[in-house]
């Protein structure tokens, strides 16, 4: 494994609770979004573990704690597709054991995001390869009760590793190539076949 592949697999898992301070919550959300945060669930996100991002996250967490909130950051490494698939299978197993149907959503394109694709990053890089492999598994394994193909709904016809340009514009400004605009969110909603639920 090359040194660039190792760096591509290193992430920060950040959990922040700002409490009742609404202005702090908005500030935290904006700062994490600027840094390229990928939200896993409310208040928990992943960010690339790179020196400028780690420094910014450290400052942000200190501010949250100073204002009475709770903040944690773990350094994690994505090892391979098999580990991610094993996690999916465990979630599916737990849901099915409780009689819950599970819809698998493919991972959206993110090429062009300045934090995930800093200048000089070779393509394809490790995270992109993992995304492609996991998406193939989600679509073809048959283990989910249904699949919402968010990648298909959002990807550019000229570059399938990138969002459609019209889903990357907000208020006339280019977005971060990671978080789709309202039109992109509508396309995601349309990718869910409600008859399969």
From TrEMBL:
Record InterPro entries? ChrB_N (IPR046858), GDSL_Rv0518-like (IPR053140), SGNH_hydro_sf (IPR036514)
Domain of life of the native organism: Bacteria
Q: Where is the ChrB N-terminal domain?
A: 25-82
The record ties this protein, via PANTHER family, to: GDSL-LIKE LIPASE/ACYLHYDROLASE, PUTATIVE (AFU_ORTHOLOGUE AFUA_2G00820)-RELATED, GDSL-LIKE LIPASE_ACYLHYDROLASE, PUTATIVE (AFU_ORTHOLOGUE AFUA_2G00820)-RELATED
Provide the protein name: Chromate resistance protein ChrB
């Amino acid at each position: 494994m090359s040194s660039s592949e190792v760096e591509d697999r290193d992430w920060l898992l950040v959990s922040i609770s700002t409490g009742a301070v609404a202005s702090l919550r908005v500030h935290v959300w904006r700062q994490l979004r600027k840094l390229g945060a990928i939200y896993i669930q409310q208040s928990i996100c992943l960010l690339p573990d790179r020196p400028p991002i780690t420094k910014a996250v450290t400052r942000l967490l200190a501010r949250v704690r100073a204002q009475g909130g709770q903040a944690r950051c773990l350094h994690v490494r994505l090892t391979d597709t098999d580990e991610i698939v094993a996690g999916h299978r465990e979630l599916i197993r737990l849901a099915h054991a409780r009689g819950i149907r599970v819809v698998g959503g493919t991972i959206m394109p993110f090429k062009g995001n300045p934090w995930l694709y800093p200048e000089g990053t070779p393509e394809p890089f490790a995270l992109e390869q993992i995304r492609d492999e996991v998406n193939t598994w989600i679509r073809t394994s048959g283990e989910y009760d249904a699949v919402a193909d968010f990648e298909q709904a959002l990807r550019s016809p000229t570059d399938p590793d990138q969002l459609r340009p019209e889903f990357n514009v907000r208020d006339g400004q280019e977005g971060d190539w990671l978080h789709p605009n309202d039109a992109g969110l509508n396309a995601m909603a349309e990718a869910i076949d409600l008859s399969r639920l």
